[in-house]
Write a structure and sequence with these properties.
Blueprint: E1 8-9, E2 15-20, E3 25-30, H1 33-59, H2 67-74, H3 78-90, E4 94-101, E5 108-114, H4 127-132
Antiparallel strand pairs: 1-2, 2-3, 4-5
Helix pairs in contact: 1-3, 2-3
């Protein structure tokens, strides 16, 4: 049996190469313009899903969610949610919130929540300050 790895787009977006390390078989594929455009649109889908996830967390700022909860509510595949959560964690848009019990499976799962905005302390002059500085 010959096994091939899935071909991935090359830097120019058209030429793909895949090979099996065990049998040293190589194969080169030329993608059509339509196929190249579909690879380019993958980035658009990722940006759209990121915006949807950000809006979801902004609408529920205090709630805790597991990845499965988010996938169910946004109607997206769990692997997309996992990638989005890692990206949002890197950006510090969301933060880990400990473990919660998944009501469907009964298992303990990692939860995330919207990162609270940093508290800014702005010094407001008070009557007391004006008396002491005279």
């Amino acid at each position: 049996m010959d096994y091939y790895q899935k071909a991935a787009p090359s830097r120019n977006g058209n030429l793909c190469s895949s090979h099996d390390k065990g049998t040293k078989i190589s194969k080169t594929t030329k993608h059509s313009a339509t196929k190249s455009a579909s690879y380019a649109s993958t980035g658009d889908v990722r940006r759209t899903e990121t915006v949807i996830a950000r809006e979801f967390f902004a609408a529920h700022p205090t709630e805790l969610f597991s990845r499965a909860d988010i996938a169910e509510r946004l109607n997206l595949p769990i692997n997309h949610i996992t990638r989005l959560i890692y990206d949002l964690l890197d950006e510090r848009f969301v933060e880990p919130a400990g473990r919660i019990l998944n009501p469907k499976s009964g298992k303990s799962v990692e939860a995330v929540r919207l990162t609270p905005p940093p508290t800014m302390t702005v010094h407001q002059p008070s009557l007391f300050d004006s008396i002491n500085h005279k």
